[in-house]
Amino acid sequence: MLSTQQKIHFSSYSGLYDIIVPKDNLLRKINDLIDFSFIYDELLEKYCHTNGRTAESPIKMFKYLLLKTIYTVSDVDVVERSRYDMSFKYFLEMAPEEEVINSSSLTKFRKLRLKDMDLLNLLINKTVSIALEKGIIKSKSIIVDATHTHSRSNPYTALEVLKERSKLLRKAIYQIDEEYKVNLPHKNESNDLDQELTYCKELQRVLDQDQSISEIPAVKEKLNLLKETIEDTKEYYLLSKDDEARLGHKSVDSSFFGYKTHLAMTEERIITAAVVTTGEKGDGPELPRLLEISQQNGMEVDTIIGDAAYSGKDNLQLAKEQNIDIIAKLNPGVSQGHRKEGDHFHYNKDAGMFICPAGHLAIRKARQGKKNIGKNQADTYYFDVDKCKVCPLREGCYKEGSRTKSYSITIKSELHKEQMAFQETDYYRKKSKERYKIEAKNSELKNVHGYGRADSYGVQNMKMQGAMAIFTVNLKRILKLI
Known about the structure:
Elements: H1 16-20, H2 26-33, H3 37-43, H4 58-71, H5 75-84, H6 86-91, H7 104-113, H8 119-133, E1 141-150, H9 158-176, H10 193-209, H11 211-214, H12 217-235, E2 246-251, E3 254-266, E4 271-278, H13 287-296, E5 303-305, H14 313-321, E6 325-327, H15 332-335, E7 346-348, E8 353-355, E9 364-368, E10 378-383, H16 385-390, E11 405-410, H17 414-422, H18 426-432, H19 436-447, H20 459-481
Parallel strand pairs: 1-5, 5-6
Antiparallel strand pairs: 1-3, 2-3, 3-4, 7-8, 9-10, 10-11
Helix pairs in contact: 4-7, 4-20, 8-20, 9-10, 9-12, 10-12
Protein name: IS1182 family transposase
Organism: Sphingobacterium bovistauri
InterPro entries: IS1182_transpos, Tnp_DDE_dom, Transposase_InsH_N
């Protein structure tokens, strides 16, 4: 049951916050910047108002999740830290002497209250609205890119994760007391998951019995992470991979197993839209959705900045219809063609035909494809195959037994011609220098807020993780710019 009135906590110790939590504290500044009552309004219908015991405030629960993202800690540790960290208590709007929640409540809050909720767009919309209200966003450009996130089950197996977590725990212990090694169980040297799991459970048991070492914060954090990993391994014991994650490619010889988050960001580095997909999805097809969401969130867009993935014909057409410039290089196959350097077919303008390296003129030509429908049209030039059969240069040019020999040239559409001309302008060169900003934002999401690896399984959980990470980086950026 959720109370229809939010409680106001009065405490004789509240004055401690003014002494202990400085004005420039990040959490104090976030509390001053944003009114979190919108979370209460959005989740009101997720609770029963007549039956059951009174639930924790959804605002407090949401703030706990936000703290997890800001400081990259486990459920257990974020709750434990809120027990003694006064900046956490202040942010959570708790009285200094107030008891903390049970960490298991956070799991239930995620699964029961945030389920079937478009949290990603809700939180992005909120931060973009704040940035627009405060006059932070002045540009009319969005920079687009996609960043990949590894599935939590790949590339590491449960065995590898357990070994890594137990190793970090031992390392934390040895930094405090090198002689403590004699009290620990013998390390598992095999590659058997059951044996590693047994070892980790025994390691946990030994440390739980010795609070003189297990209660030291540096050890306790690593121990809690190991406990979570043991529980996850039990739950997904027979699960070899994330069912919804897919294999994607960063380059020809580099792949990943997981998800993609397609982002749109202003030149002021405020993320205005995000779309989470499985890893195999292309970048370019998501541009219309990113543009639509950015516009719905209040952005006026006249320029889109991206890499060659976004310069497809459909995107160029969409941009032209909305009078938007696309700062993205055409695929080299369009602008330069796919011909090899040693290809010496030449065009004879008088005959209107191509001449092969042996000097033979094409005998006819035909146009392939339909104008402005699907792929670009191509002119195909056909040569006398009887001459090709006896040509001294036929090796590598004519395939023995072929009934025809042809040479095709793709006809650039008007859209492509216009884009090629636009790429030579000073405006294009100037705006293309802004693209590096989104690479830096991707790095912040991954390296600072743990977005390089999924916290849980499935696209929906990935969207929730993305919502919290993007909300965090947007708030931090707004605070820096105001």
